[in-house]
Automatic annotation (TrEMBL):
It holds the Pfam family FAD_binding_4. Its cofactor is FAD. Keywords: FAD, Flavoprotein, Oxidoreductase. Belongs to the oxygen-dependent FAD-linked oxidoreductase family. One of its GO terms (molecular function) is oxidoreductase activity. This is FAD-binding PCMH-type domain-containing protein. Residues 33-205 form the FAD-binding PCMH-type domain. The lineage of its organism: Eukaryota, Fungi, Dikarya, Basidiomycota, Agaricomycotina. It comes from the Eukaryota. InterPro entries: BBE, FAD-bd_PCMH, FAD-bd_PCMH-like_sf, FAD-bd_PCMH_sub1, FAD-bd_PCMH_sub2, FAD-linked_Oxidoreductase, Oxid_FAD_bind_N. It comes from Piloderma croceum (strain F 1598).
């Protein structure tokens, strides 16, 4: 029996255990298969609370998980029998310094909080593409979204963090203070501590943008291929596009193109004219308030549904790959009632991202976009999870095998799209694959700040 008095003394937040009425809600996650039964959920209020929780975990040899938005489908923000340091309830504020164009954001905030607050000042920060994801996970893994073409990765727009490291010390990390730690957290995941505050650089942002989806019949796929290839040769930095193959729980198959242009509807439709000339069966695009863009996907990715995600990189658009992926997706889902499965080919302009040197942050820069398979299903069974894992691998292998320009070792993955927590012995190998030439430096940092691997979720880095 744990003696909670050692934690509760001086702890300002909320301590939830299995006997409390809000326990089930406290361990709930976006992907219901990622739920684990923690012994303690510590809703911290500040860095001092985090330090107390870490000390308690060390003293009682408890597994540690950090929860911000709780979106990791592999369960990195959950702990079976351990302690969850949860930032979402109290450490979720957003303050804007409009004059300096900076946002001070709590580690438990979600992107919607920042989008809605910043735009009131005519500003925006680089975010993802779904606004109920947490700022912490997306940022620490690199982070990209609709504004990346103009402003780079999320980590390129972090100017400072407050982080509680494994020894319980609250440190400020920036370009002038604890610079090694500042380098490591920008792409090194949660390996170095609990970030209680991010300070982001903001950019002037027009109040409305052009965005939405156009939908095509599967027969249009052959015409879409050359259009995408041509568009991708010289994409506008204000634009972004995602091609999605989707089969919903109703069994219907569609080809979706999600569009974004940071400008007027007229400018956006000019940028994507060739797509419209093919003849979509539905046009749900319009000029809309900027803060609505990252909410467009929300109805399709609700909380509390079993989910498996797996991503790989594609060196360039290839019609034959898209056709094979689509055909295989159809075959895999013929007898899977209730399943929804999507394969998204993301096209975000990468010139700005790749203008930053690979060793400037822990996050590596490659001129290739991501392909993400997301599978969701009704019943949280091991059999369904096994099917989702196998199906996603079959689909992503098609993409990987087509990357003829790369060796196996060069077929890297993006940390935020990694499907496993990598706590096992091969975790270091996975981290090496993600961070490539930066991995030795990250191992040295891990030895300095967390030699006992207190933080071992997501993609664990082995200390040097």
């Amino acid at each position: 029996m744990l003696d909670l008095s050692m934690l509760s003394k001086g702890f300002k937040g909320d301590i939830v255990t299995p006997s409390d009425p809000d326990y089930t809600e406290s361990i709930a996650r976006w992907a219901s298969n990622a739920v684990k039964k923690a012994k303690i959920v510590a809703f911290v209020k500040d860095a001092e609370d985090v330090s107390l929780a870490l000390k308690f975990a060390r003293d009682n040899k408890l597994d540690i998980a950090i929860k911000g938005g709780g979106h990791n489908s592999a369960g990195a923000s959950s702990s079976e029998g351990g302690i969850v340091i949860d930032l979402s309830r109290h450490v979720n504020g957003v303050k804007i310094d409009a004059e300096q164009k900076l946002a001070y954001v709590g580690g438990g905030a979600v992107w919607g909080d920042l989008d809605k607050t910043a735009i009131e000042h005519g500003l925006a920060g680089v975010a993802g593409t779904v606004n109920h994801t947490g700022v912490g996970g997306l940022t620490l893994g690199g982070g990209f979204g609709w504004l990346s073409g103009a402003h780079g990765y999320v980590v390129d727009n972090v100017v400072q963090v407050t982080i509680v490291t494994a020894d319980g010390s609250a440190r400020t990390a920036s370009s002038t203070e604890n610079t090694d730690l500042f380098w490591g957290i920008r792409g090194g995941g949660c390996n170095f501590g609990v970030v209680t505050e991010f300070v982001y650089k903001l950019h002037p942002q027009r109040r409305t943008v052009y965005a939405g989806v156009i939908m095509f019949a599967p027969s249009a796929l052959e015409k879409l291929g050359p259009v995408i290839e041509e568009w991708w040769k010289d994409p506008d930095e204000k634009a972004g596009m995602i091609q999605i193959f989707f089969r919903g729980p109703d069994g219907n198959l569609v080809v979706i193109i999600m569009l974004f242009y940071n400008g007027t509807e007229t400018e956006g439709k000019t940028c994507f004219r060739a797509f419209f000339e093919i003849g979509p069966v539905m046009d749900a695009t319009s000029e809309m308030p900027y803060e609505m863009v990252n909410a467009l996907n929300n109805p399709h990715v609700p909380y509390g549904v079993p989910t498996y995600m797996k991503g790989v990189r594609a060196t360039k658009p290839r019609l034959e790959v898209a056709q094979k992926v689509f055909k295989t997706l159809v075959e895999l889902t013929e007898n899977c009632p209730g399943f929804s499965i999507s394969c998204a080919f993301e096209y975000m302009p990468l010139a700005k991202v790749c203008s930053v040197a690979n060793d400037a942050t822990a996050c590596v820069r490659l001129p290739y976009n991501n392909v993400l398979v997301t599978i969701r299903w009704p019943e949280n069974t091991e059999e369904n999870l096994r099917f989702a894992r196998d199906a996603s691998r079959i689909l992503t292998d098609i993409v990987l095998k087509a990357n003829v320009e790369l060796t196996d070792a060069e077929n890297t993955v993006y940390g935020n799209y990694d499907p496993e927590t990598a706590v096992s012995n091969n975790g270091g190998e996975k981290s090496n694959l993600m961070t490539r030439e930066n991995y030795p430096r990250l191992r040295a940092l891990k030895k300095k700040y967390d030699p006992e691997m207190l933080f071992s979720k997501w993609f664990a880095i082995t200390p040097a």
